[in-house]
Amino acid sequence: MLQYDKKQRQRENEEEQAPYLARLHDLGYKFTKFDLDTAHFGLPHSRQHQFIIGIRADISGVFWNPQALAPVTRYVRAALASSIAGSRVLPAKSAAQTKYNDWASQWGNDHSEKMLPSVIREAIKDPVRMEPWIEAGFNPSQIRLNAPRVGDKELEDQKFIPFLTFEVLALAQGFPKEWKFLAESPSGQLKMIKEALPPVMAKVVAMSIRSSLTGEAVDLDRAIVEPVIRTSRVGKGRLRLNGGPGRWHGILPPPRLLAKAERVLAGEDIAKVAASLKERKALKIAVAQVEEEKALLEAEREANMPGRYLPA
């Protein structure tokens, strides 16, 4: 698999590629060349990535070009509101919370169908270059560690445009919130985020390659809307790609634990729901399973209703 970000090259040099592709052919490979746009994979910006996939000619499997997938569109609000305006609590129990809720609603309504201009590797100070970012709902002049919080004075202005955060930029590339970029400096973090191939694109292309090599059927349309990483499945063994017995989707805790997990998610103290330390440990795992299952269903629902804003 060869891949590159088309905007990082001055031009697509067909003459440069030709001898390498000819060499692949001479070595007994059949290859497919295609472009994928991040905007078709539920990411709130548009960027073209080119792929060249080589499969040995003696392998009978057919490579299904992911370019044929049905596009999944998610705008700024649907993709990023959980990070930048995710501290809504209803009903509000304080004046500060009310102001936050009102601001979050206003911000979401103003940017329900906006897309980011790109993913940046440094803050933008030029007023002209800032304009499309402001229009999309973000101030790119600073990259902050935290999103707006309840009680921030900036939220007195209901039209306040929040600054970008590392988490927002990572989410825009499709990385899970839990994903950490360990660089020696903030600029290094931004570079890692910007230059990364979005995981959902890598996942879909890799699944298509695997399917062509093994003959195992895969549902790539579903793969786009599923979480890239589900923490409750880490260390749990092989994931079956075509459903059937053993597939993790839909697996929930036993009814007794499920009922207690729902109580914890509703706000009850886990120490009161589970009496012993052993039971609390099992309950924490159950809560994670329920949260991730709900997140998956929510992602699938949003994919069917692109751009819809769901307040936290």
Polypeptide structure, described:
With 312 residues, the chain is mainly alpha-helical. The chain is built from eleven helices and five strands, in the order βαββαααββααααααα. The strands form two sheets. The chain has a three-stranded antiparallel beta sheet, sandwiched between helices. The chain has a two-stranded parallel sheet with strand order 4-5. α2 (76-84) packs antiparallel against α5 and α9 (255-265) packs across α11.
Helices and strands in order:
Blueprint: E1 2-5, H1 14-26, E2 29-37, E3 48-56, H2 76-84, H3 95-110, H4 127-136, E4 139-144, E5 163-165, H5 166-172, H6 186-195, H7 199-214, H8 220-225, H9 255-265, H10 270-273, H11 277-304
Parallel strand pairs: 4-5
Antiparallel strand pairs: 1-3, 2-3
Helix pairs in contact: 2-5, 9-11
Question: Can I get a quick summary?
Answer:
With 312 residues, the protein is mainly α.
How are the strands of the largest sheet arranged? Answer: 1-3-2
Oligomer state of the chains in this structure: single chain
What does the largest sheet look like?
Answer: 3 strands, antiparallel
Weakly predicted, low-confidence segments? 241-250, 304-312
Distance between the termini: 39 Å
Radius of gyration of CA atoms, rounded to a whole number = 22 Å
Q: Report the β-strand fraction as a percent range.
A: 5-15%
Overall mean confidence score, pLDDT: 84
